[in-house]
Amino acid sequence: MREAFVLLLVALTSTGAWAVGARGLGLESRALGGAVGRMLESVGLIVVFFVANLLVGGLLIVTARALGPRFISLYYLDDVTVLVLSVVQGLALQAWREAGRRPPPGDRPT
Amino acid sequence: MIAAVASPIRWCRLLGAATLALFMVAAFTPAANILDAWLGIPPRIEPAEAIVVLGAGGDTLGDGLPNDTSLRRAIRAVVLYRQGLAPLLVFSGSPAEVEGRVETARELGVPSEAVLRAPGSNTTRDEAVRIGGLLRRMGVRKILLVTEAEHMIRARRLFERAGLDPLPATVGDRGGTELSPEGRLDQVRDICGELLARLYYRVAGYL
Fold it and tell me: What is the ipTM score, two decimals?
């Protein structure tokens, strides 16, 4: 029941967003496929950052345990902020990719 | 150059699609419940010589009580003690966590002479080595080991290696009862964390 409610809620707001985008903002529905592809790229980049953060964090903790006098728990990595900051990293890289693209020659300022 | 950049991006797109598919399966199907039941150990409650309660992160809150997981383990152990299943309760964890559990047990009617404090361990392996040595010297072999179902397989093997005969007294078993998407994601996070811990213990030669 709860699953159905959550999925229905997301379906309703997504449909609303599509209506606003297509009619209110004049966005082309054909471009939605490409946008979904970009969204999947962003999710993939977030996963890459998340795994990198876990691997580097684990390595740092194991090294600190071996070299330092104080015990550091690997459970430091079991913190939701690592995931949230990975989201920020992934979105920032994706935004940089978009902003860093050179415009076509015709669009360049003379 | 463009092809070299496009290829990792294509992989990112595939990774993103696979991640979203896994998220939907984990949150909106019973897959997590099935995986949890498959990876856990069912409880085996029998009379023993001691009840060993493993530490759970070492946190205590402002009121001096341990965190939720730690408290749940302690209460499970007190219930087992009050059912007459063993004459001795062993509390592990940080010094503050142990004191919080001892105080809780005392308030729930466990006499102080029935409680053994075993503070100072940082990992499950530390706990097995330290408590194993302590109990062997006291002539104790058969114990009821209190921890979560996911953690039990690793913990039981470590206590067996430490020369004890641990019976699983699992706590917080979610089994097939966890139905909310958020609860299932919590379950998946616990399972992934425990699988990584098992991998680390295997690579380090502890299991």
Answer: 0.83
Give the structural domain span for B196. 2-39+176-204
Q: Are residues B117 and B159 in the same domain?
A: yes
Q: Do the Cβ atoms of A40 and B13 come within 8 Å?
A: yes
CA distance B72 to B168: 15
Nearest to A43 among B19, B28, B57 (CB): B19
CB contact under 8 A, A41 and B12: yes
Mark whether B30 and B91 lie in a shared domain: no
Instruction: Kindly report the nearest CA distance between residue A59 and chain B, in angstroms.
Output: 12
Q: State how far residue A2 is from chain B, nearest Cα, in angstroms.
A: 6
Residues B33-88 pLDDT 10s: 888 888 888 899 999 999 999 998 777 777 778 888 899 999 999 999 999 999 99
The domain spanning residue B62 has which CATH number?
A: 3.40.50.620
Cβ-count burial B111-131 (b if 16+ within 10 Å, e if not): eeeebbebbebebbbebbbbb
pTM: 0.82
- Which one of B13, B150, B184, B195 makes the best mutation probe of the A interface by having the most chain A beta carbons within 10 Å? B13
User: Do the bridges between strand B89-93 and strand B115-119 make them parallel or antiparallel, or are there none, so unpaired?
Assistant: parallel
In-domain check, residue B85: yes
d(CA B2, CA B24): 33
